[in-house]
Structures are given as C-alpha cells and as structure tokens.
Amino acid sequence: MYRITVLPGDGIGPEVIDEALKVLNVISNKYNVKFDTKKYLFGGIAIDKYNTPYPKETEEACLNSDAVLLGAVGGPKWDMLDGDKRPEAGLLALRKSLGVYANLRPATLFSPLRGSSPLKDELLKDGLDVLVVRELTGGIYFGPRGTEKTEYGYKAYDTEVYDTKEIERIAYIAFEIAKKRKKKVTSVDKANILDSSRLWRKVVNNVSQKYPDIELNHLYIDNCSMQLIKDPSQFDVILTSNMFGDILSDEASQLTGSIGMLPSASLRGDKVGLYEPVHGSAPDIAGTKKANPLATILSLAMMLEYSFDMVDAAKDIRQAVNNILEDGYRTADLGKGKILNTQEMGDIVVKYLKE
Ligand code: IPM
Ligand code: MN
Fold first, then answer.
1. At what angle do helices 13-31 and 294-306 cross, to 10 degrees?
2. In the CATH hierarchy, which fold is given to the domain comprising 118-255?
C-alpha cells in the first residue's frame, strides 16, 4: 500500500486532479496495488483558511507519504499579497521541504498531435523527445533577495547562487538518465556573462569525465531557446538551472502541441517524489470544464514509474493517451477534433485503460 498526498490547489488544479484520481483508481484495480490518497489544502485555498500557502499539517502529510500529487496554485485573488505570502511561495517551500532538487520535464510529442505543434511538419518527422532536467531547489529562486528604499524610489535584487554540490548532484541525474536515452546531454548556461554559469560549466565538465559514453555539449541560454525552435531533434537531455529550466520547459511544451500535455516529476534520489503538471492554475478557464487533464494524468504515470517502479502501468497510461489522440479526441487546447471537456477526457482515459 502506497500513501499519496494529494494537493489539488487552485484554479483548474482540483479539476485536473479529480481526473487523475479516477485513473489511479483503475490502475489500482488493474494492477492490484493499493493506494491510500488523502487531499490537503495547499496554495491560495490554504491562505484563505490558514493564512499560509503551506500549512504545517500539509507539510507533515507530504513528508510522511510515498509521493505527492499536485494540481496547480495561484490566481488573481492572491496576486496583491507580498511575495513571501503568495501561493507560489508555498510551492517553493514545498519543493524545498521535500528536497526535490531534480525536476524532470519530458517534452514528448504524441504522434497524433503533430498537427497541433506550431513547428513545420518536416521538423517533426523524427518525432520530438526532449527531457528538460531542471535544477529545482537552488539558483535565483532561493538566493539572497530584497527591496530597499533609495533616494529616488527603490532598488530590488535577486541573486543567482550555485555551489559545487548543487550542480554536481543535478548533473549526475542528467547523465544517468541520458544513459537510458539517446546518450546526449546539452548543458545550458550563460557562461559568457555569469560567474555562477562558469562554475556550472566547470562542474558539469568534471562530472562528464565519469560518463565517456555520453556526448556533452554546452549552449548559452539565448542560443538554446532559438535552437529548440530551429531544430529540436538535436536535443536529448537538457540540463539547466532553476530559472532557465522554467523558461525552456514552457517553450518546449508548446512544441508538443500544448502545455496541457506536459507532466513533471521532482525527485531527490530517494523516497518522496513530487508530481505536477507543468501548466499553472489557469484561472481564466477554471470552472469552464475546458482544462486538459492529460498533463496531470501523465504526471501520475511518472509517479507510478519513478516512485513505485510500476513501469508497465505507466506505459499503459501513455499508450491509452496515444490511442485516444489517435482516435481524434481532443480537449479544446489541442485544436480541432472530437472535443471533450475535462471530465469526459478523464472518463475516456479510464475506458481505454479498461479495454
Ligand atoms: C513552474 C511554475 C513555478 C516555477 C511557479 C508557479 C513558482 O512556473 O512550475 O514552472 O516557476 O517553478
Ligand atoms: Mn514555469
């Protein structure tokens, strides 16, 4: 029996989470594995009740579970709060408290969605399978910051900080994963400008000595964001910092047709993993049943694979999603087809899994 702490969060979060839980239920029966799922308040909804986005009770539940499944957080209702009181601050606190420094964001194109990608078909003939390995608990998101009064107005600053250990451990993750893929790591930095990037590059080069079979190259962030659109087939694993990974993963997601398709797993090498769709809380479509639940359902597949070693169940889910898309079913974000709402998409995943 595995314990899963579920954090639906805000906006479309609860809607997509409910669909993923339906899918988990089928997997439980089909593979005869028990899951104990319990929902806790997190994000804006937790601020409303407890005045903090990451209440103690939620933190304890997360730390004592085998995995955490998260929807999304944030919305206009909480936008006027100070930075450290916002729902997003809770997300950073959650990642930090779980110690999940390795964020895996696979941008994989399901072949039936080739027409939904903004890229020309000829660029996609070999498919698209890029894994962004994003450092998640360091860098400018967590470095010294502040806002100070000046004579004229204010000055505000955030600091990018990385030490050898932080770079080393994320680099190891990237190289280990590359072993099981196309054996290529592209490390992305801004080493022509930033000291932190120069250290990043040096440490990644050192780690790469231990992986003679893995091809390593380095790209500057500006060039990489251009190359991703020019020819994404050159990439296998992209290894990068917290902020660059945040930006590149949104860009990569769009190449797969919609950010509504992109799952993520955040790991620290041992037990508790955090699984969440890459998309946000999308307050503009919350309650309209338009949200695409597939990114959350695919995040669940990553949980089954990485936290519970249920590789077949994970494959089963991905295959069902592919077949559904092949049969022409779409949520609104994916363009033309037999359009389904959030619940209908969840139901059809359940149906295909049972067949
Ligand atoms: C993401 C999000 C978060 C991030 C925000 C909501 C704090 O954009 O998971 O990509 O920047 O990490
Ligand atoms: Mn982001």
1. 40
2. Isopropylmalate Dehydrogenase (3.40.718)
Share of the chain above pLDDT 90, in %: 96
Decide: 246 in ligand 1 pocket, CB within 6 A.
Answer: yes
pLDDT at 269 over 90: no
pTM of the model: 0.95
Q: Out of 10, 246, 316, 333, which one is annotated catalytic?
A: 246
Q: What are the φ and ψ backbone dihedral angles of 39, each rounded to 5 degrees?
A: -90, 140
Same fold, 1-104+260-355 and 118-255: yes
Cβ of 135 less than 6 Å from ligand 1? no
Query: How would residue 272 be classed by pLDDT, with cut points 50, 70 and 90?
Result: confident
**Nearest ligand to residue 103 Cα:** 1
- 56-65, 263-272, 286-295 — which is least confidently predicted? 263-272
Q: Could you confirm whether 195 is annotated as catalytic? A: no
Q: What are phi and psi of 147, to 5 degrees?
A: -130, 125
Chain centroid to CA 113: 20
DSSP string, 263-288: --EEE-SSS-EEE--SS---TTTTTT
CA quadruple 164, 169, 172, 173: dihedral positive or negative? negative
Q: Look up residue 84 and give its DSSP letter.
A: G
How far is it, in rounded angstroms, from Cα 262 to Cα 129? Answer: 12
Q: How many CA atoms lie within 13 A of 91 on its CB side?
A: 25
Domain residue spans of the chain: 1-104+260-355, 118-255
- For residues 147-170, average pLDDT: 98
* Tokens coding 42: 């997190």
- Domain 1-104+260-355 is classified in which CATH homologous superfamily? Isopropylmalate Dehydrogenase (3.40.718.10)
**What does the block give as tokens for 200?**
């990043």
Asked whether 10 lines ligand 1 (CB < 6 A), one says: no
* Residues near ligand 2 ion, CB 5 Å cutoff: 246
Average pLDDT value for residue range 65-69 = 97
pLDDT at 190: 98
Instruction: Tell me what the pLDDT averaged over the chain comes to.
Output: 96
Cβ(11)–Cβ(283) under 8 Å? Answer: yes
